[in-house]
Design brief:
Helix 9 crosses helix 11. This protein has 16 helices and two strands.
């Protein structure tokens, strides 16, 4: 049977396919990867967004996920979970002081940027957004430090992030400066200082739970010598928070140490030696030569630790179980407890509030700090 002339042959189709693949090789190779990434990222994101707008309830024959709109967010910000998430506020005198301070700071920043003839968003939008965010954080944190108040999971998380990142950077910088010196035994201490980073967070939590046990832990003689025999860290809110903070700092300081040590070793020694020959003190050498070289690495390091600090969950969960009460409970642990009680909507809403918070902080940090650290402004 004779094949119609207008029907393309199998060889012709193959040639066309090969030609299309050659012309669109990048698309053909990247498209499967993009689809897989979207499937693993976009679908869970959309699913969790719907979960934050829904409520799980038990019905005859199974479970029902009913749409409730913004009810879960209202419960966290204005409803029954407000004290758990935002804490119980104290006196409002802090609000006045913070408003005055923020207004002065915003005025100074906007005046300087107006004199520099920046764009409207640069001289007004960024300072205003940053000032409002700073105002909210300052009031939410400081108003809970007064007597008769209680910190919520938001303030506790901010405490872990700010205090933990600051201590980790300072300790990592100090250890890096010591190991950068040509002293005996520095190789041994370099290995010793990075060992905590090799331990899992759960292992660190159980280890500190054992070390802080003043009744039967290995440090009982030390606690008794200090007059702390039988003292329970968990019964004191700030004692429990400090125990969690110390464990987090002990584990993640090696990360800061490694990054800063690598940055220190890339500094040209000729400049340091020339400054020493010219009579500069060690502080002057550090301030004018070493620290400017460390700024780009330091800014990136702090950004990474800020993002990771918001996700702290292992240490407060294992070490104190979020107690006493909710004193050491982070936002992530709050969401985990809500999920464990099948309050899926509240857990998803907490996750999205945390995502918004981290996005705001990192965006402002990337817009203000990173360009200046890299010498772009």
């Amino acid at each position: 049977m004779k094949k119609p002339e207008n029907q393309p042959s199998q060889a012709g189709l193959w040639v066309r396919l090969v030609g299309w693949l050659e012309r669109n090789a990048a698309t053909a190779f990247l498209l499967p990867t993009v689809l897989v990434i979207l499937a693993f990222v976009l679908f869970p994101l959309v699913g969790s967004l719907y979960s934050s707008l829904a409520r799980l309830s038990f019905r005859d024959g199974g479970l029902e996920l009913s749409f409730v709109g913004l009810a879960n967010y209202r419960k966290l910000l204005l409803g029954s979970e407000q004290g758990h998430f935002l804490g119980h506020p104290g006196t409002t005198a802090w609000v006045l002081w913070v408003l005055v301070f923020t207004a002065i700071a915003l005025g100074v920043v906007m005046y300087r940027r107006w004199r520099a003839k920046r764009s409207l968003w640069v001289w007004l939008g960024q300072p205003l957004l940053g000032g409002l965010l700073l105002l909210a954080f300052t009031w939410l944190f400081l108003s809970r430090l007064l007597p008769g108040t209680r910190m919520g999971t938001l303030q506790t998380t901010l405490f872990y992030v700010i205090a933990g990142t600051t201590l980790q950077y300072l300790l990592g910088l100090g250890l890096a400066l010591l190991c950068a010196e040509r002293l005996p035994g520095t190789r041994f201490f370099r290995v010793l200082f990075i060992l905590p980073l090799a331990i899992t967070p759960i292992g660190v939590a159980y280890m500190f739970r054992m070390l802080t046990d003043t009744g039967k832990g290995p440090l009982v003689p030390l606690w008794e010598a200090l007059g702390l025999g039988g003292f329970s860290w968990v019964n004191d809110p700030w004692g429990a928070r400090l125990a969690v903070l110390i464990g987090d700092v002990w584990q993640w300081t090696p990360f800061a140490f490694i990054v800063l040590l690598a940055a220190l070793q890339s500094i040209p020694q000729e400049q340091v030696e020339a400054a020493a020959v010219d009579g500069a003190s060690r502080w002057q050498v550090f301030r004018h030569i070493i620290f400017p070289y460390l700024l780009p690495a330091s800014a990136t390091l702090v950004l990474i630790r800020l993002i990771e600090g918001f996700k702290i969950v292992d240490l407060p969960n294992i070490l104190t179980n979020g107690g006493p009460g909710t004193a050491t409970e982070s936002i992530t642990l709050h969401a985990y407890f809500a999920w464990r009680t099948l309050d899926i909507g509240t857990a998803a809403a907490l996750g999205f509030l945390l995502m918004v918070l981290v996005s705001l902080v990192t965006s402002l940090y990337a817009a203000w700090v990173l360009p200046r650290a890299r010498g772009q402004q």
